[in-house]
Design a protein that fits this description.
alpha/beta, binds 2-acetamido-2-deoxy-beta-D-glucopyranose, 8-stranded mixed beta sheet, 3-stranded mixed beta sheet, UDP-glycosyltransferase activity, hexosyltransferase activity, glycosyltransferase, 329 residues, transmembrane helix
Length: 329
């Protein structure tokens, strides 16, 4: 009896920890589960960024998972590793006019959205995306939209960048309920002097994640699918800021990482394989559903925008900043 109750307690405890620690992720994955379409904006500003190395946090080691993904990085790089059985999809829409070949693209923003989210995309086009909205700004591939297919969408985003906008120096990938403060994003990139040519994978850091074994959970994963006790650190999927170098490296190894249904965790594995550390970005807010769109002044991106009025208040706040940045450029 004792062992029975102890087992139960452990199970409950592990579920409880997942619920509290995974609070933020719950909302994000629900949103991601309906994504299929990506909307893209390419911002063209010239810049001369001089680099100072970004400060890395202390690495968290998920040693038990060491070796997950059979090919070593050396084998992948040398081309001797065998690709895993990820299906290849074809484009239905490819937004191939977004990035003019050889143009100078400082920042590329991709919005993960669902086919039916026309209204949300409209809010974005009328507010933070207003200067950059094109008619053919959608990317779509021929896979079915479902929760377990989420990772195909992030792979689509990365492949698309490498095929159609490889010159973009910085890349921001966001959900369609995020407000992006473009002036702050550009200021951050320029002021922090992040190099486009070294590791940069940042956002809301999930530093010590572990697999969810609660059967009823949206994030449940069986021990057959994933036998280990922890995940490597990753950046929560609602808003991910990367640079050119990191996207190139991710694309190189993504075919060699076993498929996991959680797109952001999948990126964590890619980064681990490459030895790229995810870094916390204090200006990316995924904490709460937004009640005060005035806070956007202090952020790169903020989560929880679901009404026209929230988008519009935020737009009024960022609009003045926008004018300042355009003058600078
Ligand atoms: C996907 O495409 C790549 C590159 O063309 C190819 O090497 C690979 O075998 C394809 N994968 C499948 C499952 O068809
Ligand atoms: C863009 O893609 C469409 C459809 O695949 C193709 O017809 C067109 O030629 C492409 N345009 C450019 C500029 O690559
Ligand atoms: C994922 O997409 C593929 C391709 O469209 C489809 O065959 C598969 O059924 C999808 N999976 C789910 C669970 O929807
Ligand atoms: C935004 O600013 C304009 C002009 O100042 C004002 O008319 C409008 O009511 C404001 N909108 C919101 C949602 O605050």
């Amino acid at each position: 009896m004792n062992s029975g109750s102890s087992f139960k307690f452990k199970w409950f405890n592990s579920c409880f920890r997942n619920l509290s620690a995974g609070n933020i992720r719950v909302q994000l994955v629900v949103l991601n589960s309906l994504c299929l379409v990506l909307m893209v904006f390419a911002l063209m500003y010239t810049n001369n960024v001089h680099r100072t190395p970004p400060s890395h946090s202390q690495p968290y080691e998920c040693k038990e998972d060491f070796g997950y993904g059979k090919a070593s990085l050396e084998e992948i790089i040398s081309g001797t590793a065998q690709q895993l059985d990820h299906p290849n999809f074809t484009y239905i829409r490819n937004a191939n006019k977004t990035c003019i070949p050889n143009s100078d693209v400082l920042l590329l923003i991709l919005v993960k959205s669902a086919v039916g989210h026309f209204r949300k995309r409209q809010y974005i086009r009328e507010t933070w995306g207003i200067e950059n909205g094109l008619h053919e700004d959608l990317i779509q591939q021929n896979f079915e939209d479902s929760y377990v297919n989420n990772t195909h969408k992030i792979k689509m985003a990365l492949s698309w960048i490498s095929e159609y906008c490889k010159q973009a120096k910085y890349i921001l990938i966001v959900d369609d309920d995020m407000y992006v403060n473009i002036p702050n994003t550009i200021s951050f990139i320029l002021q922090e002097a992040i190099s486009p040519d070294e590791d940069f994978y940042s956002g809301h850091l999930v530093p010590e994640p572990y697999p969810d074994r609660c059967l009823k959970s949206k994030h449940f994963i069986s021990k057959t699918q994933y036998p280990f006790a922890c995940y490597p650190p990753y950046i929560a999927g609602g808003s991910i800021l990367l640079n050119k170098y990191t996207v190139e490296q991710f694309v190189r190894v993504m075919q060699f990482i076993p498929y996991l249904p959680f797109d952001d965790v999948f990126l964590g594995f890619i980064a681990q394989k490459l030895g790229i550390e995810p870094t916390k970005n204090a200006y990316i807010s995924l904490e709460e559903r937004t009640t005060n769109a005035n806070d956007i002044k202090n952020f790169i991106s903020q989560h929880g925008y679901n009404t026209n009025i929230l988008f519009r208040i935020a737009y009024n706040n960022t609009h003045m900043q926008m004018k300042t940045v355009i003058k600078l450029a």
